[in-house]
Amino acid sequence: MKFYFVASIYNLKVQRVLNKGLEVIEGIRLSNSKERLDSFIDDFFMTLAGKLEVDELYDKPFLYYQGNIEQLDIDIDNGEARLNFLDYYLRMAQTFSNFLWLAKDNSVTVQQGFLYIKNSDGTPHSMTSNMRTPIFFNSKGKSEEIIYTYDELKGLAESIKVLNHEHIEKETDEMSMVVNTSSNRIERFIYFLQATRTQTHLPSKIGMYCTLLETLLSTDKEGISHTIAERLSRILGKTYEERLVIYSFVKEAYNVRSSTVHGDKISKKFRDIEKLKEISSKFDDYIRSLFVYILSEEKVNQLYREDKNEKLNEWFKELILK
Fold first, then answer.
1. For the segment 208-238, what is each residue's pLDDT rounded down to a tens digit?
2. Cβ contact 18:33 at 8 Å
3. Percent helix, strand, coil in the chain (nearest 5)?
4. Distance, CA of 32 to CA of 197 (rounded, Å)
5. Phi and psi, residue 276, nearest 5°
6. Partners of 110 in beta bridges
7. Residue 118, C-beta contacts closer than 8 angstroms, at least 6 positions apart
8. Residue 122: burial class (beta carbons within 10 Å; 0-12, 13-18, 19+)
């Protein structure tokens, strides 16, 4: 018996046709080939999914997976079991859309997915559908289409393989990203990043960016904004002038966060929506650059995997005073 998972992916435009598709996470492939959809979407699928939903699949890039159900320990006659099985693939699809942020700011998101199971003779067995509620928005709080090149997607797929197996813990039942008392900084960052990208209220989004920064750079509870600003400016700034700009920016962002969190009115300087968009967008870029640096530098990556404050403090001290 064969099963097929498929879900539309919104706000993503791919420059070339991906026939069989590019494997992006846990065997799930990204494609935009109508012929690939034709290979398993039939009258039964069309009737149960509905024309509007099927049209969405044909109109956008999509994520899909196909396999043999006999190889898995699943009671396919149990509706709840099928729903849980579908939810696993939807969670993985959502994880992929979250990882797209590693390349650039975006609002790519996955919502409704379908699980179609066929009997051994090719006749329909069942169809299950479900949705993921988190919807991602870009740094400006907008939902906008963005183009990814094939090379960008291929590079991201390779990064996801490393992150998914080394930094994402999976529970037996849910097989999803989780955060618990043993989660390291990278795992916590990815979890909080997902929450940040669902936010459209810009002052709150900026506040959540501050939390992301603290997840990566804070090692104590005193003088956080100064410490964070100093460490980020030293890591990303190539010259004194660049470091000063970054330092001043972080202090400014923390002023927005402080007003938002503590219930004060945001100062007139930050009430302009365009100013808030500018801060949010720049903050998003800084945090992405920092996270990519941590992932790409082997020594630093190891420090974050171990996640011991003493060792991180030694590294930060060396970084600042060197």
1. 999 999 999 999 877 789 999 999 999 999 9
2. yes
3. 55, 15, 30
4. 25
5. -65, -40
6. 9
7. 1, 2, 3, 4, 124, 125
8. exposed
Tens of pLDDT, residue by residue over 158-201, are 888 766 544 444 443 343 444 444 578 988 898 899 999 999 99
Please report where in the chains the tokens 């660049």 appear, as a residue.
242
Distances (CA, A) of 300 to 18, 186, 313: 35, 12, 12
Say how far apart CA 305 and CA 289 lie, in whole Å: 18
In whole angstroms, what is the distance from residue 181 CA to residue 206 CA? Answer: 26
Between CA 229 and CA 223 the distance in angstroms is 10
Q: How far is 173 from 228, CA to CA, in rounded Å?
A: 37
Q: How far apart are CA 34 and CA 58, in angstroms?
A: 6
Residue 191, Cβ density class (10 Å: 0-12 exposed, 13-18 middle, ≥19 buried)? middle
**pLDDT value at 319 more than 70:** yes
pTM: 0.87
Element (H, E) at 319: helix 309-321
CA dist., res. 102 & res. 167, Å (int):
15
